[in-house]
Design goal:
Radius of gyration: 21 Å
Strand content: 15-25%
Order of helices and strands: EHEHHEHEHHEEEHEEHEEHEEHEHHH
Number of helices: 13
Helix content: 25-40%
Bound molecules: nicotinamide-adenine-dinucleotide, sulfoquinovose-uridine-C1,5'-diphosphate
Strand order of the largest sheet: 3-2-1-4-5-8-12
Shape: globular
Number of strands: 14
Length: 407
């Protein structure tokens, strides 16, 4: 297959591009390198020393990888460029990772909120519109988030995208339907994924585009089989307060002797997936496209759920580290249960990498190995969800406790 990997310079996109190339597909990477620009804005760097895109691609060819090309393009800003790219490369499939993906970054300021909405919905809508304009028969695989569901506690396992409902019709009969699971995003970033969902539903219905939306949990780990083949292929490992995700942050914090930063009580339960399983899931999704005219295919791309404080205790135990409960900068439920259906990937052959298998390896081979590159000042999460949570706001105005009870 000819596959365009949009956002292919990022944490998920780069190992996915390598994996697909290794399987024998022709891969072209599209990226505007905004993520590297955000590193500069934040004064933060990947713990691992990532090579330039050019060096990455040269390194891949030198280890015998199938050559990949790189196109620098802003999907949200350069619609004519996107149309021209699609006409020139005529991909069979497009994997869309190209969005601003940090919840804390999206909440930092009005400017960051607006950038995240404009960038993410602009990129997704431009892509959908361009696919219709070019008339190409492309399978679009998008990386969405488990956060569209809102980690709810409705007493049932969260289904894969669609909820069975029974409606009382006006004539007294009962009508059965399936609707998109009600969304409940917890940040502006997560909200952009909700908007994406609506755009996908519309374009699948109106233009019969073939779309798969992968509702992915928090990705942990660093290496895949391919990124290990040469130092220039190494993947990014974010640990800073905006882009570092919880488990990778705990692993890094353990390695540098920083107390593990549990927000609030740590009762938040979230869905997780290892990076090796992420690349396999993308492969499986590409191999199982929807038919023309089908509704959007939605898979829950996660393998395990964990409570934040349990993760912290586990990492602290195996690394002899300490856990610290810190004030939660987010507006989120302090405790939640999370049960998720993920049978589609398991039925299609995914064999999950479980937490127990990878943790120690990550601490030894990645976090400790690159610990001297860590800037400890970048660890605290300073982006707050509401004005009341900002430092210096008097406690009487801090309606956070009340807000959390209603979250
Ligand atoms: P990332 O920030 O490392 O990579 C995203 C890439 O997209 C970057 O290289 C960036 O430069 C590029 N990009 C952003 N906007 C663009 C635009 N307008 N035009 C062209 N390129 C653009 O993020 P990631 O962790 O690799 O996440 C990839 C996707 O997976 C995101 O959509 C994210 O929402 C989703 N996801 C990530 C996780 C996770 O834990 N990392 C979990 C669930 C879902
Ligand atoms: N948390 C801590 N301590 C920390 C960092 C985070 O307790 O040091 C807590 C947060 O308060 C939150 C939970 O850990 O309750 C998860 O935070 P996170 O930063 O690991 O994940 P999140 O902001 O949800 O976003 C990440 C990715 C995003 C993806 C999402 C999948 O950045 O792109 O969509 O995971 S999901 O969580 O399933 O929605």
């Amino acid at each position: 297959m000819k596959i365009a990997v949009l956002g292919g310079d990022g944490f998920c996109g780069w190992p996915a591009a390598l994996h697909l190339s290794d399987l024998g597909h022709d891969v072209v990477i599209v990226d505007n390198l905004s993520r590297r620009g955000i590193d500069e804005e934040l004064g933060a760097e990947s713990l691992t020393p990532i090579a330039s895109v050019e060096d990455r691609l040269a390194g891949w060819e030198e280890v015998g990888g199938r050559p990949m090309t790189f196109v620098r393009l802003d999907l949200a800003q350069d619609y004519p460029g996107l149309v021209a790219f699609l006409r020139e490369h005529t991909p069979d499939a497009v994997v869309h990772f190209a969005e601003q993906r940090s919840a804390p970054y999206s909440m930092k300021s009005p400017g960051h909120k607006r950038y995240t909405v404009e960038n993410n919905t602009g990129a997704t809508h431009n892509l959908l519109c361009a696919l219709v304009e070019t008339g190409l028969d492309v399978h679009l695989v998008h990386l969405g988030t488990m956060g569209v569901y809102g980690y709810g506690t409705a007493g049932m396992a969260i289904p894969e995208g669609y909820l069975d409902v029974e409606i009382a019709a006006d004539d007294g009969s009962r009508v059965e339907q399936q609707i998109l699971y009600p969304s409940n995003p917890g940040s502006i970033y997560h909200m952009t994924k909700v908007l994406d969902q609506q755009l996908f539903a519309y374009y699948a219905k109106n233009d019969a585009l073939r779309i798969t939306d992968l509702h992915q949990g928090i990705v942990w780990g660093t290496h895949t089989d391919q990124t290990l083949r040469d130092e220039r292929l190494i993947n990014r490992f974010d640990y800073d307060g905006d882009y570092g995700t919880v488990l990778n942050r705990f692993l890094m914090q353990a390695a540098v002797g920083y107390p593990l930063t549990v927000h609030g009580t740590g009762g938040q339960t979230r869905a997780f997936i290892h990076i090796r399983d992420m690349v396999r899931c993308v492969q499986i999704a590409l191999e199982n496209p929807p038919a023309t005219g089908d509704r959007v295919k939605i898979f829950n791309q996660m393998t395990q759920t964990h409570r934040v404080r349990d993760l912290a205790e586990l990492v602290a135990r195996i690394s002899d580290g300490e856990v610290e409960l810190v004030p939660n900068p987010r507006h989120e439920a302090p405790e939640n249960e999370l049960h998720v259906h993920n049978e589609t990937f398991l039925d299609l052959g995914l064999e999950p990498t479980l937490l127990e298998e990878g943790l120690l390896m990550e601490i030894e081979d990645v976090a400790r190995r690159y610990a001297d590159r860590a800037d400890l000042e970048k660890i605290p999460c300073t982006s707050t969800w509401t004005r009341q949570q900002q430092p210096g706001v008097p406690a009487s105005r801090a309606a956070v406790g009340a807000a959390e009870r209603t979250a």
